[in-house]
Amino acid sequence: MAPIKKKSIFNAKDLIAYFLVAGTGAVIQLVSSSLIQDWFDISWSASIVPSYMVGFVVGFILTKLFAFDARKSNQTRREMIKFFMVALVSLAVTQIFTVGSFKLATEVLGFEIYKLKLPFSRKEVNVTEMGSYLTGMGFSFVSNYILHKTFTFKSTGFYNRLKVLIS
After folding, report:
1. What is the model's pLDDT at position 115?
2. Which of 9, 34, 52, 78 has its CA 20 to 30 A from that of 122?
3. CA dist 69 → 62, 65, 72, 73 (Å)
4. Which residue(s) pair with 30 in the sheet?
5. How crowded is residue 34: how many other Cβ atoms within 10 Å of its Cβ?
């Protein structure tokens, strides 16, 4: 009898697939953040929550289909509830590290706000805010990967206990 191999949390196949899926979600989130700022005339920090919600739907579908090989699990409702719970944690991580890194850079370290005009466009990008946003998304990526791998797309018994509690 062969020994049972325990799957590592950070196996290359899942990590690469999740990176591609999360990268797609990050692009969607950044583009929607920019559009939300322009359309509704709100600040970049106020656009984090609505742009995160736009990326949430796309993120669930792509993560389920491609990242953790959960496409045929027949537990979509369960995974959706757990995905939403992880998304709330991730949203908090994104918000805290985005705003925190911006304040660290500008108020504590005294970095100037750097802006760049996109070529062939009237759009001006605040590079300092963008860097802070990417920092927040990076921290969110790590927490999301670990939580989705060990909680969302894994049978933990949590959903069944939650169902009994709600009933």
Report:
1. 93
2. 52
3. 11, 7, 8, 8
4. none
5. 16
Beta carbons of 36 and 85 less than 8 angstroms apart: no
By C-alpha distance, which of 129, 145, 138, 118 is closest to 33? Answer: 129
- Is the distance from CB of 102 to CB of 132 less than 8 angstroms? yes
Q: How many domains does the chain have?
A: 1
7 located within any domain: no
Q: Both ends of the chain: CA-CA distance in Å?
A: 44
Structural domain span for residue 41: 13-166
Residue 88 has, within 13 A of its CA and on its CB side, a CA count of 5
Q: Confirm whether 8 is domain-assigned.
A: no
What pLDDT sits at residue 43?
Answer: 92
Q: Is residue 144 part of a domain?
A: yes
**With a cut of 50, which residues of the chain have pLDDT below it?**
none
